[in-house]
Specification:
alpha/beta, Rossmann fold, 2 domains, 7-stranded mixed sheet, 12 helices, 22 strands, binds zinc ion
């Protein structure tokens, strides 16, 4: 078997690998790098392509897949929820960046009409490959893959979280014996704060702000993080109104359809019932004048309704903006956090509201990645992907130093034989 890295190595974005056995090739994820102009992984000729396997709906894993449906029919495998969420995210991506994309909505529909549903615990036989699907714990619907062929077993973690969250069960680490591991390393160099403490502190702070008559704006990504934040508030008995805005509404409806992907679907259902859904500009303008919490995309304030809210909320000191994800340098969210300024009509304006950051990560940290790798049996080659070069190198040197396994941080275009 051969493993080729097409993208998403020494970087986060455009994740894609190709697995070849004989003259059959599988693609595992095919994402985009989200810059102003989207970047794609290396291309694979569709001739020998027997299937595309998608770990989860995030665009850095899914955003390039429709390219293969401009004139081709290839089965694509993922969970039902992943397909529903992908439709939402790809449609939005086309709306925002369509000009730069080599496909259109009809190709997304063609992709979805070739969708084959798989789920946790299932096994798929496909052209000489046997694929097992495991819980990944990253976002609703996310999976890890173990692909077997020619007597070799390869694990691809995709994006993974080894810790339980309010929304999801942790990743399944029952891998058994493996010949190769492809592991993500987004936060290999970090230690996340203790989750329950972080949740308590967060709810306390939101309560304090809304209790004194302020508005607490919580910019959050619409798929996963928005619902996680809502569930945290609900689980802690948050007594004030909570509004939800943006694509989260469509994502909510999809998530209500598939209880099997959730740790506590009842909590999600209850939280979504209590939340007030914002459906237009009238409601948006009203909500921001009331003491309440508002959960709205985008998580880094790049577009989305949060860009509107932040301008209003920033003006008054009784309000607060609580960031709940990592803020990439160069984003308005990062500027807010570091300089306490927001862009109003393109000009930076100082912020009177409180600004605080709570890092509710959906990726596991360095310790989690180490425990994941320790649970692997056999003597696999370990390929470290999906991280900045420093984080990937750091994890790789731990793997070779502590576990005595061969560890590689591959480069785009490199091919490795397995077995
Ligand atoms: Zn992801
Ligand atoms: Zn990712």
């Amino acid at each position: 078997m051969k493993l080729r890295f097409l993208g998403g190595v020494r970087e986060v974005g455009r994740s894609a690998l190709a697995l070849t056995s004989g003259d059959s090739t599988l693609l595992l994820d095919y994402g985009v790098q989200i810059n102003r102009e989207p970047g794609f992984p290396l291309h694979v000729p569709p001739k020998n392509l027997k299937g595309i396997l998608l770990t989860h709906a995030h665009l850095d894993h899914s955003g390039g897949i429709p390219i293969y449906y401009v004139g081709h029919r290839i089965p694509v495998y993922a969970s039902k929820l992943t397909f529903d969420l992908s439709r939402i995210l790809l449609k939005d991506f086309l709306k925002l960046s369509g000009y730069y994309l080599p496909y259109e909505y009809a190709d997304v529909e063609a992709m979805l009409s070739n969708a084959q549903t798989v789920n946790v615990g299932e096994t798929l036989e496909l052209e000489g490959f046997t694929i097992r699907f495991l819980e990944a714990g990253h976002i609703p619907g996310s999976l890890q893959f173990i692909v077997e062929a020619e007597g070799e077993r390869i694990l691809y973690t995709g994006d993974v979280n080894t810790r339980e969250t309010k929304l999801l069960n942790p990743a399944d680490l029952n891998y058994g014996e493996l010949s190769a591991v492809v592991v993500e390393s987004t936060y290999a160099g970090e230690k996340h704060p203790e989750r329950s403490e972080l949740e308590k502190l967060f709810v306390e702070r939101v309560r304090e702000v809304v209790g004194r008559g302020g508005t607490a704006l919580i910019p959050a990504f619409s798929v996963g993080r928005s619902q996680e934040v809502l569930c945290i508030l609900e689980a802690h008995g948050f007594e004030y109104p909570v509004y939800m805005d943006g694509l989260a509404l469509e994502a909510n409806e999809a998530m209500l359809r598939y209880p099997e992907h959730f740790r506590d679907h009842e909590l999600l259902r209850r939280a979504l019932e209590r939340a007030r859904w914002i459906r237009g500009w009238g409601e948006r303008r009203q909500a921001v004048k009331r003491p309440c919490a508002i959960i709205s995309p985008a998580g880094m304030l790049k577009g989305g309704a949060a860009a509107y809210y932040v301008e209003k909320v920033a003006k008054y000191s009784q309000n607060a903006i609580f960031l709940v994800s990592f803020q990439i340098p160069g984003t308005p969210g990062r500027m807010l956090l570091e300089e306490r300024k927001v862009l109003v009509n393109g000009k930076p304006k100082p912020v009177k509201a409180e600004v605080e950051s709570f890092h509710f990560s959906s990726h596991t940290d360095g310790e989690g990645l180490k425990s994941l790798l320790k649970s692997v049996k056999g003597n696999p080659k370990v390929f470290v992907v999906h991280g900045n070069p420093e984080n990937s190198e750091k994890l790789a040197s731990w793997v070779s130093g502590e576990l005595g396994l061969e560890a590689i941080v591959p480069r785009v275009g490199e091919t490795y034989p397995i077995g």
